[in-house]
Design a protein that fits this description.
This protein is mainly α and 90 residues long. It has one domain. Helices cover 70% and strands 0% of the residues. The protein is built from three helices and no strands. It has helices at residues 18-22, 26-72, 78-88. Residues 35-69 form a coiled coil.
């Protein structure tokens, strides 16, 4: 009996041969290809999800930096704006 999982036991092997599939019992021969295909699809979806989460965290960090940068300068009130205009015109 062979294992469909790699040495880590967490990922489905991608190098399963026809001989290995033929060594299965008849009932398992029918189910194994569908199970392996579904497991590979699930792994691919999980990998895509993890990549999307990494991108999201990177974009959130950029957004946080932009928010922090925009808040670092105090908001100019009308008095300060008037003083700046007067100073610029003198």
């Amino acid at each position: 009996m062979f294992s469909i999982f790699d040495a880590s036991g967490s990922r489905v092997r991608r190098d399963i041969t026809a001989d290995e599939l033929n060594s299965l019992q008849e009932a398992e021969k029918e189910v194994a290809p569908r199970y392996i295909a579904a497991a590979l699809d699930a792994e691919e979806a999980t990998d895509e999800l993890h990549e999307a989460e990494r991108k999201l965290r990177r974009l959130q960090a950029l957004e946080d930096a932009a928010i922090t940068a925009s808040q670092s300068d105090p908001v100019q009130d009308r008095i300060d704006a008037l003083k700046a205009v007067i100073a610029a015109n003198q």
